[in-house]
């Protein structure tokens, strides 16, 4: 646990970062800052302990980190090469970070895509065991993400473990193969991920169908993310697409609202409105603003409000109160 | 605390480049030289003109330049979020400070030397040992003052606002000294006052005799600024939030 100024920032975190692992943690900027300081030994936990082989071999990058804009890419990296005291041939390495065409360009003229790769290159030169990066893809274009992932693969192929944090699960799914969501009450919750694979010739497993297990699948980039029903706050239908709402994020599902209602009603979900399927466990209040309109207020900071059809009020009451 | 010459050298080169390309810092030495050149053309030669010009030029360079060179680069690093990157890249605060201080003090010394010929003062009239000692010590005091301001500032704008009263008070010492005797007496206890008096005496009497009061004032300012700097640095590091 880490408290700062009477406020609990991090709590209930139990995490082992194994060498070569690709871990992503969904958390806020403030939580990331504290986590990085704790791991790098710049901050001491209020309770609990952190075991690290050598904090000098851990580097971190936060979203505010800046570059010396007046220097060229080459001069900037040469400067850090002198700091680290290595004599690696930067000209050979620059290709892995896709920086050949801007090698002699001043950093102030570069795009966010290129600046992010420079940051990664700088940290790579130190040959750390672990790199902590906060939200590296936040302002990157699709092409920029592709090049960044290529550079990140190169970094990881050199035995460097990279742990990413971000407020957006989509970003972490692209960067990592193990994604946790941080919640102060329960600590780190693991999100189930599975790489998309071609299963057309894999009929032998088709007959295997375990009972009483259901997870909502959402396709994001080249991955499919599975959400447990208990993670979902509610599902909203927008223009015919069912959007799974988790925390402050929406994930589109290929299933229709009717399909989801049928599969999720065993897990405590209720169709409170034509466009909404709510997780009954998340309801905190029921308010009637007028005689014929009812509103459900959900738990959490955002206190989401969902409409409740008048005709379904009694049914909902029975479900909750029985 | 281990100090690495390699890292100090890398920071020295980086800071040399950043000082020479930052016009808000270079304005001080350029202003010192420009002021002397312009005033030399405008002012009639009364026999004391050279001493007046050199005194003012040196104060511009040592006070304005020193404080700005100490505070601006540090607050700029914080404002642009490059200091954290450096500090998490195995560079420690003392290596950063030494690497940043060296180009600044070298520039101050070089400009102080250049100011002598452009003030039309014969090189033989200068007691070079004491001249370099007083002006360089003055530069160091200003740099320390600048670093303290830099530690407590988050941006260049904030650093500029905090620096301004010190710069005005210390750079225009000769103006305050000319205003009235009481003020002149008070200003004689400032390091800028000592530098002004030293240059004036050296050029009017032909040779400077060490004055105990002046030396005590200079050393006291240096020690006080060093203590304040060590306190600020040890309490807040370079990054005061």
From TrEMBL, chain B:
Membrane topology reported for the UniProt record: Multi-pass membrane protein
Task: Tell where it localizes.
Answer: Membrane
Q: Which domain of life is it from?
A: Bacteria
Q: What is this protein's record name?
A: ABC transporter permease
Keywords tagged on the record = Membrane, Transmembrane, Transmembrane helix
Pfam families according to UniProt: ABC2_membrane_3
List, for all copies, the residue spans of the domain called ABC-2 type transporter transmembrane.
45-230
TM spans (from-to): 20-38, 50-75, 96-119, 131-150, 162-180, 215-234
InterPro entries with a match to the protein in the record: ABC2_TM
Q: Which organism is it from?
A: Companilactobacillus mishanensis
Q: Does the keyword Transmembrane apply?
A: yes
